[in-house]
Amino acid sequence: MKFNDRVKKIYFNAVAALILIVLCLWLLDLPLAAWIAEYLGANAPYVKTTDMPDLLPITAVILTSLSWMVYFYLVRRNIHDQRTLFCRVTGTVLPLSFGMKTVLKWLFGRTETRTWLLDPSLYGFHWFAGKEGFQGFPSGHMLVFTPLFLALWHFYPRYRLYYEVVWFCLGAALIATEYHFLGDVLAGAYIGAMVYLAVSRRLDKLAG
Description:
Radius of gyration: 19 Å
Shape: elongated
Strand content: under 5%
């Protein structure tokens, strides 16, 4: 694919993703969250979803550390194959995506689903005020884990179906447990994918 065609494809995907996210923000997020609250969550009479523990920070630290430990082990043994590049990519993209989600959550300050359910008047974007209860956009789990799944998908394609199923289930769980609106999840996935593409291309150029 030529450079100009690649740039056009990136811009097209960016515009399509932006339109989809905006449609969710305006039309889908609140009705879907209300339906989930009524039938699965806060207001459900019989079935209630359970809390998901926030293990994202420690998970990111552990996976990043393991990636670099394995990377330097392979380099010391003079092994330079897809395992080495995979560890370098994940060791770079995980802390980068985690830092980005922290900044973006503070920047947008969007009301979290559970906060909105408790007080609908608080709904909206509270710019530069992303404190507790107002850190919904984008989804940090999707932003951090999407690059990881993409790395696995790229370097170890044999199990692509399993990666896709786990990735989809993660996004669905974040919505069903009332942690995020649909738009938050889609935005996190898209930004995470862009982070992965940027890092992987940069490392490919350095390796070349």
